[in-house]
Design goal:
5-stranded mixed beta barrel; two-stranded antiparallel ribbon; flat
Length: about 290
């Protein structure tokens, strides 16, 4: 017993090993990545913050729409039950209101899923394409294939705007000249492409290049607490401002999206829409000159 009593204090004073900080994997640009990818990589959390705010605004708008649906009155119609005539809620209107409520609730739920996904430090936030020289990001649009130049160059039309598309895109050849296809790819606008038409016109159109952005990124382990703190304190950076940083070649902070750009219809430009894209009337136009 005395031996046990002598050992007890010693056992109580044993130091437990300090808990190891939690680690998680995040995306970072590779050393040999292009300059625009490195600037994008250095601003992932700022872009993430802008996207989270954009989705949160959509959620609030959808909640307001849901409230309007719930306030929508159900019209009363004349109903007959034998010899008794009275008023009853319109069954079709009641079903439509219930369907609209369920649809709005699904939209809100899906938008929250997007927000939770963006808030995950392991998520790589992808910018949507900004229609500016140097702009890059996901381009999702229904396109017309105007002409197949060769296996990796195509003249297409997006929202009534002619575009030179460079790269390999599955299934585009099957559309054939004059056909349509869905474009959902990561592209960069490298500048303006000049070519001569069959009627001897010189034409300038935006030059889109398909890019495999994933090959320029790698996952590294970082301290979880530091990563979460950086996300929480990050300032918002829109895709348009990110494109301007790339265009200037300097990572000095958000640039003014009102800067002039050859792809705009006018020097002043117009405000971006809710996704950070230039509104359709400010999409680039083609320029034709006769030789």
């Amino acid at each position: 017993m005395e031996e046990l009593n002598r050992q007890a204090p010693a056992q109580g004073t044993e130091k437990r090993p300090a808990p190891q900080p939690k680690r998680l994997k995040v995306w970072r640009a590779k050393d040999d990545a292009p300059a625009f990818v490195k600037i994008w990589s250095s601003r992932l959390d700022e872009l993430r913050a802008w996207q989270v705010e954009a989705f949160t605004s959509k959620i609030n708008a959808e909640k307001a729409r849901l409230a309007e649906i719930n306030r929508r009155p159900i019209p009363m119609v004349t109903a007959r039950d034998g010899f008794i005539v009275g008023k009853a809620p319109d069954a079709a209107a009641k079903r439509q209101k219930a369907d609209d409520v369920r649809a709005a609730e699904r939209n809100i739920q899906n938008l929250w899923k997007e927000v939770h996904s963006l808030e995950d430090p392991a998520h790589l936030p992808l910018p949507e394409l900004t229609w500016k020289i140097g702009g890059f990001g996901i381009c999702s649009a229904e396109c017309s294939l105007v002409q197949v130049i060769n296996a990796t160059n195509f003249l297409i039309e997006i929202d009534q705007t002619s575009v030179w598309l460079e790269g390999t895109y599955p299934g585009i050849e099957r559309a054939g000249d004059g056909g349509t296809f869905s474009l959902n790819a990561f592209v960069q606008i490298k500048g303006l492409k000049t070519y001569t038409t069959v009627t001897n016109f010189r034409r300038q159109v935006p030059h889109f290049v398909l890019l495999d952005y994933q090959s320029h990124f790698q996952q590294i382990e970082v301290d979880e607490a530091d990563a979460l703190a950086h996300i929480k304190n990050a300032k918002k950076l829109s895709p348009a401002s990110l494109a301007l940083l790339v265009q200037s070649g300097k990572d000095e902070g958000p640039a003014s999206p009102a800067d002039s750009d050859p792809l705009k219809r006018n020097a002043g430009g117009q405000p971006p829409d809710g996704r950070g894209l230039l509104v359709p009337k400010d999409r680039p136009i083609t320029v034709e000159k006769r030789e």
